[in-house]
Specification:
The protein is α+β, with helices and mostly antiparallel strands. It has a single domain, classed as Alpha-Beta Complex (Peptide Deformylase). The chain has 4 helices and 8 strands; from the N terminus they run E-H-E-E-H-E-E-E-H-H-E-E. A hairpin with a 2-residue loop joins strand 7 and strand 8. Helix 2 crosses helix 3.
């Protein structure tokens, strides 16, 4: 089932999300709905807060980046076959050089900005079967995980940009939060649904 994606301005997007247990109600169905929602919106990642659930869960399928002709081999290799479910993740280390990349977000449509992030991370998490994993990631895989991880920490990519850039896009952000935009996927703006 495709779920509406919450728009910028929704309070749950700014909340620190909670861990869940294997007994979380209908977890497999939720994960399936998140995949369906993400693919319908043509995204590469989706976090539970974006569908209104303040829980530490996100899904990523970075394979659409493989079609980007501007990616170098380092970036492409980091995302090959990178499709995962992250439950109760914890980034334990961020290192490597800072690098900028133009990011966007399904909750903040039609806005893209350069965001500086570390090129390498170590993350611990549980998969959809509640099996524990520890991954060392670099390049684009690390970036996509950091972006989705921010969502469960109550952080949006716009929180990483300068105050000047924020002032320049303030009108667009206001339009998103009020629902004065058109998108080709279902969104929820301040308790009203639009498509």
């Amino acid at each position: 089932m495709i779920l509406p994606i919450l728009a910028y301005g929704s309070p749950v997007l700014k909340k620190l999300a909670n861990d869940i247990t294997p007994e979380y109600p209908n977890l497999n169905k939720l994960i399936s709905n998140m995949w369906e929602t993400m693919y319908a919106a043509k995204g590469v990642g989706l976090a539970a807060p974006q569908i209104g659930l303040s829980i530490r869960l996100f899904v990523i399928d970075a394979t659409p980046f493989l079609d980007d002709k501007n990616m170098d081999d380092f970036e492409l290799n980091s995302i090959k076959n990178f499709k995962k479910v992250f439950i109760n993740p914890k980034i334990t280390k961020e290192n490597g050089s800072l690098w900028e990349f133009n990011e966007g977000c399904l909750s903040i449509p039609e806005i893209r900005e350069d965001v500086s992030r570390r090129s390498k991370i170590i993350i611990e998490y549980f998969d959809e079967n509640f099996q524990f994993h520890r991954l060392e990631l670099s390049g684009l895989a690390a970036r996509v995980v950091q972006h989705e991880y921010d969502h469960i920490e109550g952080i949006l990519f716009t929180d990483h940009i300068s105050s000047l850039k924020k002032r320049l896009i303030k009108g667009k952000l206001n339009n998103i939060s009020s629902g004065s935009i058109k998108v080709d996927y279902e969104m929820k703006f301040n308790n009203k649904k639009l498509k």
